[in-house]
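hey
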């Protein structure tokens, strides 16, 4: 029997999740929590196999509650069930120690399967969430500029010419041009203005 605690601050939503899970063979709902603090207290007191946890709750958030539960127990697993599916929300929940992340719009079968998977020690992710994470992992790494390339671009941003930059850094104009060309290549641009703009957009300057 999989023992489940449901944590959601919306009473109607919580009741719906409870009713869905309670009607499944091999699953028993042993408690309900209306906020993060209550979820932590009940998880520590009742020791469910799985906590179905909402993210946005008053007071202690679902992520923070998940982290506390995971810090204090080895056997209570958390399955996040939320309407939010941004990269930041997903990564925050996983970093907090959640074993799964499903969206509330998912089919009932997906939630039930997620509870069973998490209880078995597996990871449960909605197909859409899994696709998002894969896409994020496949994103090219941001370019890394050397300190001197960054310095040269910063002086370009101040409006200095190559000759003026060389004088400021005590290097030849050709050396300045070399640093700029390397920065252009890393940023995938062909001119000074675009290089400075893109470097600023990416937080490199």
């Amino acid at each position: 029997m999989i023992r489940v605690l449901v944590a959601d601050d919306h009473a109607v939503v919580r009741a719906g999740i409870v009713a869905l899970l309670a009607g499944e063979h091999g699953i028993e709902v042993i408690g309900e929590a209306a906020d993060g603090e209550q979820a932590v207290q009940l998880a520590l007191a009742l020791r469910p196999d799985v906590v179905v946890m909402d993210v946005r709750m008053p007071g202690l958030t679902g992520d923070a509650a998940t982290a506390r539960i995971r810090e204090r127990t080895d056997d209570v697993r958390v399955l996040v069930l939320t309407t939010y599916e941004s990269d930041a929300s997903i990564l925050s929940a996983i970093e907090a120690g959640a074993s799964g992340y499903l969206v509330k719009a998912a089919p009932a079968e997906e939630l039930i399967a997620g509870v069973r998977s998490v209880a078995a020690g597996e990871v449960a992710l909605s197909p859409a969430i899994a696709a998002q994470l894969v896409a994020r992992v496949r994103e090219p790494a941001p370019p890394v500029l050397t300190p001197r390339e960054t310095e040269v671009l910063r002086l370009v941003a101040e409006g200095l010419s190559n000759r003026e930059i060389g004088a400021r850094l005590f290097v030849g104009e050709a050396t300045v041009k070399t640093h700029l060309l390397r920065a252009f290549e890393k940023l995938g641009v062909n001119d000074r203005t675009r290089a400075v703009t893109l470097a600023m957009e990416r937080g490199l300057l």
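The two ends are 56 Å apart (CA to CA). The longest helix spans residues 173-187.
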